[in-house]
Design brief:
With 317 residues, the protein is an alpha+beta fold. The chain is built from eleven helices and ten strands. An eight-stranded mixed beta sheet has the order 3-9-8-7-4-5-6-10, sandwiched between helices. The chain has a two-stranded antiparallel sheet with strand order 1-2. A hairpin with a 3-residue loop joins strand 7 and strand 8. Helix 9 packs across helix 10. The longest helix has 40 residues. It starts with 7 loop residues before the first helix and ends with a helix.
Length: 317
């Protein structure tokens, strides 16, 4: 637009680019209608008013967005139909308080569905026998999507997974996206609780080791509360994934955060907004902001971003 007298070679020299790289750009601008070949000066080009060509591009993009939205609506309708068919084929409705699941495939499907619908928190105890490679491959994408939604995830895993490169690689990948993991000799129980309301427990084999055992889906608040208590007890004595014992109350300094503050830091590190964090913690937004201000003061941080960096360095996350 500013140097219409330049040829491609001259424009390339001014841009510090080889002519072979500028030529395709010129051709693309001509294709988009933003350049016209000059009839008066062969080899030269005239810039077209940008609004004409760019409006055409925006209209094309708008048409594509409309088509994508139509496909999205169709996909959503299909998903609703699939969900209805799936629920109709289930052995019992979601209102069943305790449901026995005998098949391994059905148990895996229930686990993926529970984690996929999680809104706040997923707590997991995993034993050696409950760690097949297929489970890692199936559950990883679902867990990563949950973490991106802001779901808090904590897991206690068997120490032996460090010896299995595939399992260790899975844990490292999910932990890099926000999973908080600890290890112990063997949690002795496979159990997953979601949002403090639903629990999925894999029971041991039958007497004498006969049979593969079965899974129980629990929705009774009193039983899920027992699972939550059990998880917290195991979590307390487990070691951080990186090695070394977990901190105990006697080792903490006066400035170390409380469990609630640690959870708040974890939520903020996952990008959760103040309002959502307040709902998760069961406090007001004002309380959350006061806690953040207090943490920033103790960390001597001037911004939330800096507070997150300093908290990570201190091992608060």
């Amino acid at each position: 637009m500013r140097h219409e007298s330049l040829s491609v070679t001259e424009a390339a020299e001014m841009l510090g680019e080889p002519p072979s790289g500028v030529g395709p750009v010129r051709d693309r601008l001509v294709e988009l209608g933003l350049l016209l070949a000059s009839r008066e000066r062969p080899g030269r080009f005239v810039a077209v008013h940008p609004e004409a060509g760019l409006n055409h591009l925006l209209e094309a993009q708008h048409a594509q967005l409309i088509r994508r939205h139509e496909r999205f609506v169709q996909a959503r309708t299909q998903v609703n139909v699939l969900v209805s068919d799936y629920l109709a084929a289930r052995p019992g409705p979601d209102t069943v308080e305790v449901q026995r699941i005998d098949g391994v495939d059905q148990a895996r499907a229930e686990l993926l569905a529970l984690v996929g619908r999680a809104e706040r928190e997923v707590l997991t105890l995993r034993t050696r026998r409950g760690w097949p490679a297929t489970l890692s491959a199936d559950v990883m994408p679902v867990e990563l999507r949950a973490l991106r939604r802001g779901v808090v995830m904590r897991s206690v895993l068997p120490r032996s997974l460090r010896l299995d490169e595939r399992s260790a690689g899975y844990v490292r990948t999910v932990a890099a996206h926000g999973l908080d993991a600890r290890v112990t000799d063997d949690p002795r129980l496979d159990a997953t609780t979601v949002d403090g309301r639903v629990g999925l427990v894999r029971l041991a084999r039958g007497v004498g080791g006969v049979g593969d055992g079965h899974t129980v889906l629990v929705r009774i608040p009193e039983l899920t509360a027992v699972l939550l208590t059990l998880f917290e007890q195991v979590w307390e004595i487990a070691e951080p994934l990186g090695g070394g014992p977990a901190q105990t109350g006697g080792e903490e300094s006066a400035d170390d955060p409380s469990d609630t503050e640690r959870l708040l830091l974890r939520l903020l590190s996952l990008g959760v907004k103040d309002g959502a964090a307040a709902r998760h913690l069961g406090v007001s937004v004002r309380t959350v902001r006061r806690m953040i201000a207090d943490l920033m003061s103790r960390l001597n941080a001037r911004s939330r971003f800096q507070a997150g960096t300093l908290a990570s360095r201190r091992g608060w996350l």
